[in-house]
Amino acid sequence: MSPVLARLLNKGFVLPLFVACIGTNGSMACRRYEPMEATRLDCIFEASHLEEGGFPRPLHLLVVGQRSVAVHGRLDPEDEAWHDPDTT
To answer: Most CB atoms closer than 10 Å: which of 34, 37, 45, 82?
Structure first.
């Protein structure tokens, strides 16, 4: 997740970031990332629900920044890369 967040912060997203991850089986986790000492991020779990089987891929992710800028992406089973849905 860190490379994805770093990329978004470099593109102008502003902390805090709110991230929702949803698995194909209904597992979900919502997190808030806030600034913490120098370049680290503090992750606060806001809500979660875990189905049997954990978080199977593909995972859909929604990231929303402080200024209500949002992006949707997907992590596929084959790799750890972030895929923008409009480009795949």
So the answer is: 82
